[in-house]
Amino acid sequence: MTSVALFKQDGSQNGEVELNAAIFGIEPNENAMYEAIIRQRASMRQGTHAVKNRSAVSGGGKKPWRQKGTGRARAGSIREPQWRGGGIVFGPQPRSYNYALPRKVRQLAVKSALSEKVANKALVAVDSLSFDAPKTKEFAAAMDSLKAGNKVLVVVTDDDKNAVLSGRNLASATVVTPAQMNILNLVNSDKLVITKSALSQVEEVLA
Q1: CATH class of residue range 2-44+99-206
Q2: What was the pLDDT predicted at 60?
Q3: Which pLDDT tens digit goes with each residue over 104-127?
Q4: What's the pLDDT score for residue 1?
């Protein structure tokens, strides 16, 4: 087991919290992280690119000239690929860029990213993030108290609805639940702020 300081919402320390070393204390596997990032970025591609092939371009119903006797190369349509305005050969067509990656590799990537955060002292554990109503100003003040910085990933549970609503308009913060936490938003953040209850859920899923 490894431990980190546990803070209150106002930035004062409130003891320590134990972390599962099998999740937060492993040697980061850079290859697994790389593969998981590439897979997630690939799945985000829309894949709506398309060109018209010979059958899709308009025109070209009539043979340009007779087959023999003109001295020119034979031609069957002005929409052949070598003609200006003709169809494109082997051009891109709509497709999905999704591909599978073993679940254990995806989990290893997330564990590696979390372990990196702990090793770099970029994980901030907080007792809770509770707000009486959705208030961006109060959420920003809490992030300042926790010294979260300008690029922070905040992980809260589904019960912390006011925290989610309070942080969604803050450009410097991304607020997610444990189910929404992934390798991409982990590596794209300079700091990770996670509540104690969300920490338990993350350990439960990745254990």
Answers
A1: alpha beta
A2: 85
A3: 999 999 999 999 999 999 999 999
A4: 63
Residue carrying the six token digits 């593969």: 35
Residue whose pair of structure tokens reads 């989610």 in the numeric block: 164
Q: What residues have CB less than 8 Å from 202, skipping those under 6 apart?
A: 23, 114, 155, 178, 181, 194
Query: Is 29 a residue whose pLDDT tops 80?
Result: yes
Q: What is the pLDDT of residue 27?
A: 95
Name the residue ranges covered by the structural domains of the chain.
Answer: 2-44+99-206, 46-96
Buried b / exposed e across 106-138, counting CB within 10 Å, b at 16+? bbbbbbbbbbbbbeeebbbbbbebebeebeeeb
Report which residue type is found at 181. Answer: M
Q: Which tokens hold the place of 36? A: 């998981």
Residue 27: DSSP 8-state:
P
